[in-house]
């Protein structure tokens, strides 16, 4: 029963116990994972099993939720409660001016040869009295092609989001990742025209990922770059896949995170620039989250009538991690919305500001949602 599913989430919230509820892109079922104590568990390596929630700063520890209890909701109902319309205003001139200066600094360092691309972000604070579950249900209702989640730990806080970007999937030695860059508003055209800035940014990201995976992933392949819709926005996407071993999973994740799509290239220089110049803590925005080493069991012989051989089962481990984009943090009666964009030598500061405004609508739309 849907009521039982959401009642269990409400109960965990009231008891201040950790949980995560989520739905994968283009799926019907919603899953919830509950940890039955408030212990703050950190990831030691990538051999553990659980739901991982990692920050942008790869030097900071990632959090792991134990799978003490798992519930499934077969399908989320079409109707959802409307969140409150009690919401604050868009950021003022001071933040506008700061972000323009930040972008100018990034462009200057690119032209000085310090790095090739940097991703710069900002946060927006709005007030709302909307219940967390109503926000989550609005996410499920509005963003069916994104990874939608509600994550909570009493010692860390509450985060929600609807992210379109996969960090990686890993199943039966097959590893898949993607480069996602370039942004424009969706205007009823699934094949929009892209400018040189966006095309160059996408190519830079793709090349960087391919190089980062060399020696860790064999038989690397890439798909042609395509335009994909994510909510009210369009992006450029290239899928990259190859073969890897379970033992190499940690090295692969460390090579990819933070990705050029959320940090820049080279990673070390741009990460240092972001931590020094953005003037706020991203925390888990542009980190990653998802299922780590979830076990799947299946019969090796599925032919009917061959019941004796059905005792032989294979168990595989599956990992599906998403980059934490299009997200918000709930702090008492306020919401922090996080937005950013990739900066290259051809960037225009005012247009970059406009891109963050466009991206902010993804989460603002959730708070402003109506029936």
From TrEMBL:
TM region positions: none
The protein's Enzyme Commission number: 5.4.4.2
GO MF annotation terms: isochorismate synthase activity
Keyword annotations: Isomerase
Pfam families, per the entry: Chorismate_bind (PF00425)
Highest taxon of the lineage: Bacteria
The Chorismate-utilising enzyme C-terminal domain, residue ranges: 100-295, 314-359
PANTHER family in alphabetical order: ISOCHORISMATE SYNTHASE ENTC
Protein name (database record): Menaquinone-specific isochorismate synthase
Lineage: Bacteria, Pseudomonadati, Bacteroidota, Flavobacteriia, Flavobacteriales
